[in-house]
Amino acid sequence: MRILFFIIPLFLCALTSFGQQTGVLSQYRYNQLVINPAYAGHKNDLTLNLLHRNQWVNLEGAPVTNIASIHTGIKDKHSGFGITFIDESIGVHESFALYGVYSFKIQFETGVLAAGIQGGVNQLNSNFDELNLQSQTDVVFSTFQNTLNPNFGLGLFYSNKKGFVGLSSPYVVENRVLRTGNGLAEAKESRYYFLNGGYLFPINKDFIFYPSAMIRVQENAPMGFDINANAILQDVLNVGMSYRSNDAISLMCSLTVNENFTFGYAYDYTISNLSNYTNDTHELMLIYRINLHKEKCFTYF
Are 66 and 87 in contact (CB under 8 A)? Predict the structure, then answer.
């Protein structure tokens, strides 16, 4: 219980200002650990999630994201633990993030409230030799340095068998990540906030309608949102569509092969100004679960 009273005040203090450069994902609903540390151990089973995203295909320097995460819950201790690794490249930059995650859960009559905290490091490597510069002695590019910065994140996640709501800031510290020795240029991480929720509407024993939504807030940027609608058929096939504000329309599908394996694919059709140059984004996902407690977990979110 003490850890909950420690995490919640920290989280509320963080809300006094807005903003880590966080890659956009279409299938985040299958692994909310990437946006909310309170999700760690949500289902108590041991879960490994692998995701590859190739954004804006055929556009040179477009983002490519790889994510690996593993987490589990300790049922009798009301706790969850996890590790998240993110590798993302865009242009001449490649970033790595490695975080350990902990959550503490409180059981209520109506559901479970989890508070989570994560801590780790972000590394940014920039290879400006890949640029075709008109001046090879340009001081702005020649003096950039690669950086390694610590950071932490906070989150709350409330859920029951019918739905969930989450609030999080996965990277609280706004580190400077690119700078020149003479101050000609610099860049810093931005703090994001995520508010999301979803609810299950069983139509019959073979069909569940699953709408969800998410709001993203970042300092000095327009508020973004996702609106999603999924259909779950016989607890095996999950198909859906998503609208991401001023960015893309996503079509997605996941197939649960057995109690251990789930495969997912998402296709994003670009509707922003980039649609003049590229329309295609592909995202692949693999989930592997081991049930540690011999009881069925609801795995819809």
Answer: yes
